[in-house]
UniProtKB/TrEMBL annotation:
Keywords: ATP-binding, Nucleotide-binding, Phosphate transport, Transport. GO terms for molecular function: ATP binding. The lineage of its organism: Bacteria, Pseudomonadati, Pseudomonadota, Alphaproteobacteria, Hyphomicrobiales. This is Phosphate ABC transporter ATP-binding protein PstB. PROSITE patterns: ABC_TRANSPORTER_1 (PS00211), ABC_TRANSPORTER_2 (PS50893). PANTHER family: ABC TRANSPORTER I FAMILY MEMBER 17 (PTHR43423:SF1). It comes from Pseudahrensia aquimaris.
Amino acid sequence: MTEKATTDMPHNKMTVRDVSVYYGAKQALFDVDLDIREKSVTALIGPSGCGKSTFLRCLNRMNDTIDICRVEGQILLEDEDIYAPDIDVVQLRADVGMVFQKPNPFPKSIFENVAYGPRIHGLADSKQALTEIVETSLKRAGLWEEVKDRLDEPGNGLSGGQQQRLCIARAIAVSPEVILMDEPCSALDPIATAIVEELIDELRQQYTIVIVTHSMQQAARVSQETAFFHLGYLVEHGATEDIFTNPTDSRTESYITGRIG
Ligand SMILES: Nc1ncnc2c1ncn2[C@@H]1O[C@H](COP(=O)(O)OP(=O)(O)O)[C@@H](O)[C@H]1O
Ligand SMILES: [Mg+2]
């Protein structure tokens, strides 16, 4: 193998091995293995109820907040086991941030929505440093130009698409490595959706992104890798282009051609 081929080997940001999830006695995910490639967008697709959100929540231990939920298996962030007993879960959720389906800004100003995380994580040692983090985060989220003159106004006074970008800025503000997004555009109109999709494409220069989407068109537009889930199983994972043009499993093919789902 040439040296170039070696250095071009994709790096895995997260490694999921043999993950099963139960809600009480009901098993929702079965022995899932997945390598999540660094600085790329991985789309999770599959019919409603197949376990996409459950899987996403495993990646930053959000399932811990659901009493009856139990997670088995191993998940690494780089080479750190995120389910190890000594893991600081608050820090983990900063490193692996999350954006939800419905934009959920805090009932605070635009500035405070973004400043909150850096403040509680002690990331800024002066007012000026904090202001810089807020500005940089809003710029990276593609929102700065629209809000720079009204940072003191309430975050929830923005349009839906702007609120979702504010939530992305809030996630970015604590310097995450991975950003999880659970159907981030499903409450947005087509124009706001297009803006957020463009943003996701820019963000992958810097962050590893895992996005749940019920839209195969969206998966095809924004992702480089796609994982197809069905009835709690990860059926197939690979380059998005291959999954959509040349799936190997008949269940994947049925789903992408619209026969199941
Ligand atoms: N909080 C919960 N309590 C009990 N069962 C749940 C909970 N969340 C999800 N489930 C169940 O787990 C399965 C997978 O759900 P989910 O991960 O939400 O699927 P998807 O995001 O693909 O629609 C479904 O059968 C769902 O009913
Ligand atoms: Mg879901």
